[in-house]
Amino acid sequence: MALLPAAGAAALATPFAAQPCGLRRAYAPPAAALRLGPLFWPWEKVKIGPLSVSPMGFGTWAWGNQLLWGYQESMDNELQDCFNLALRNGINLFDTADSYGTGRLNGQSERLLGKFILEFEGTIKSPDDVIIATKFAAYPWRLTSGQFVSACKSSLERLQLDRLGIGQLHWSTANYAPLQERALWDGLVEMYEKGLVSAVGVSNYGPKQLLKIHSYLASKGVPLSSAQVQFSLLSMGEDQMELKTVCDSLGIRLISYSPLGLGMLTGKYDASNLPKGPRSVLFRQILPGLESLLSCLRRTAEKKGKTMSQVAINWCICKGTIPIPGVKTVRHVEENLGALGWRLSSAEIAELESAAMAAPKKMVQNVFQTA
Fold first, then answer.
1. Is 174 inside any structural domain?
2. How many distinct structural domains can be found in the chain?
3. CA-based nearest residue to 261, from 366, 346, 170, 367
4. pLDDT, tens digit, for every residue of 153-187?
5. 92-116 b/e with 16+ CB inside 10 Å = b?
6. What is the C-alpha to C-alpha distance for residues 43 and 128, in angstroms, rounded to an integer?
7. Coil vs helix vs strand at 353
8. Is 362 inside a domain boundary?
9. Cβ–Cβ contacts within 10 Å for residue 122, how many?
10. Per residue in 28-86, pLDDT tens?
11. pTM for this predicted structure
12. Is residue 239 included in any domain, yes or no?
């Protein structure tokens, strides 16, 4: 007995990357179709609090950052193409921050997203069609909840939006300015109560601090919907896995940033071919110990007819997280879309994780991440 209509079976047999990326979607399985497995297509949505988002989003750290990512304003047209292509193919979650950008370009990522939404050559029927998750920096001069709410309003102006999808604390101050932390939490409460955000989240919180803010927000009647942390085959230590367990127990969606380890898991770099800029220092330290993991990624990719990047991103999805790989070019968007619509087997996941745990060096964790 066929489990899917013929058209559905044919589409499931076709790698997503081989389907036309310029179309809104190549195929939408009937809602009543029986599933062969938990495949994740871009238009199949998962929940972040009250929001329905694509199983993968895109990060926009590079949009305005000259120091680390070499941004130039001449890139803006292609970035618009990146946004358009992603949106046409079902991706509706875009992550940014009010600190993204360098020098005079601070906030540039938000400004570009606002411009791209307005100039999108397609139909945006409701605010849910494009969900912006932005992070507010815990700058030392943001000492009151009112200042944090003002930061949210400034982001809305740059984005040209009336309401954010997710308003997030960029990092916790618990390690160095614990008295500031409560004001930031109250700022989240206030922006939620004022209707400036549909959901609230945190970034770079460890499991212990996550439990504290979840409890505090709950006492104010505000649900904590998401927790964003560095999470990849290079960042799967005890804290990350404990955080994932806490998120699952509390109904908080984990958003995994740097799912490709800043590019180390793409297979594009080695000791004789390092990226330009500050990343080269980190790569020089870590890459020499990744031969086994990269070989495992390469074998799995060849077996699946995928790229190493697609396998690394799919691993994050299989772990129940929403990865937000960064994109700078249309090619990046096309490749990352190929991480969707299929799933690693449990044996492949175990093999990748075994190789990752055997690596002598892991990704350096964010200095702001708390316990």
1. yes
2. 1
3. 366
4. 999 999 999 999 999 999 999 999 999 999 999 99
5. bbbbbbbbbbeeebbbbbbbbbbbb
6. 13
7. helix
8. no
9. 9
10. 444 433 444 445 777 789 999 999 999 999 999 888 887 777 788 888 999 999 999 99
11. 0.86
12. yes
